[in-house]
Specification:
InterPro entries: DICT_dom, Uncharacterised_Vng0742h. It contains ten helices and eleven strands. It is an alpha/beta fold and about 250 residues long. The mean pLDDT is about 90.
């Protein structure tokens, strides 16, 4: 059984970053821009409209850190196609394969920003979880930890099942976590962690580690209510290893 110290404590204690997101909108529909602002709403993100000039990018989103250093630029259209104008069916049906994941840089660079999401805004966390799974697919001899709350969810969503079948058949050391309501049969060599405890029931995580530093990543969230989550993602290699070590120590087999 799990004790009182939970993986969700990382959501409270990780040093979180601040970002400025500037929208340069020449002709994209304004409702689309409003959707974008709602999607990335966080106290740690300042969202502002940029003044259009010949020198500024057209119909783009620019992300800067708290010192004003530019981190990434992505078009509004590619962000829209990724998280604004899609629904969860894209992930449920597996329409997009793990090789086709191409998360816009502007979203990736909202790392270490805490988000509280509900409803369609959950797509932001879903997209980043798929991105970290894709890092696992691209890595060599890596370890990937994934928490599903209930292991049956791997089979409930065909797209998820395809992703994890591919990972199980790769060189990835795959560890899956969740309550054993229905344990799926996966090809390849997969380690299942099925302790019945609140931590696994309420946590959502994907951690790719034991690989090159630039391929490491973690998404971590905990449930705060029905269809409500708070969480963040990080590509800091030391932080990724810290969470991986926690999982290995807590759920060693």
């Amino acid at each position: 059984m799990c004790d009182s110290v939970l993986i969700s404590a990382f959501v409270d204690t990780v040093p979180l970053a601040r970002r400025t997101l500037t929208v340069f909108n020449d002709d994209e529909p304004e409702p689309l821009v409003r959707m974008l602002k709602r999607m990335v709403d966080s106290p740690a993100v300042e969202i502002r409209a940029g003044e259009i000039s010949p020198e500024t990018p057209e119909n783009a989103v620019v992300v800067e850190d708290e010192d004003g250093t530019e981190l990434a630029v992505s078009s509004i259209s590619e962000i829209s196609a990724c998280v604004l104008l899609v629904n969860s069916d894209l992930y449920v049906t597996g329409t997009r394969s793990i090789e086709e994941v191409d998360t816009p840089a502007a979203l990736r660079h909202l790392d270490e920003v805490r988000f509280s999401v509900t409803g369609k805004r959950k797509m932001l966390l879903i997209e980043l979880s798929r991105y970290i799974e894709s890092l696992g697919w691209q890595s060599d001899d890596n370890t990937l930890h994934a928490g599903f709350q209930y292991l049956s969810r791997i089979d409930d969503e065909r797209g998820t099942r395809r992703v994890y079948d591919r990972l199980a058949d790769s060189d990835t050391d795959l560890h899956l976590y969740g309550l054993p309501d229905r344990v799926p049969e996966l090809s390849g060599d997969t380690t299942l962690h099925t302790e019945s405890c609140d931590e696994l029931r309420e946590s959502w995580f994907v951690v790719n580690t034991d690989c090159d530093a630039d391929m490491k990543g973690v998404l971590l969230a905990d449930r705060t209510g029905p269809s409500q989550w708070r969480g963040y993602w990080s590509f800091d290699a030391d932080h990724v290893d810290e969470i991986s070590t926690y999982l290995q120590n807590r759920y060693s087999t």
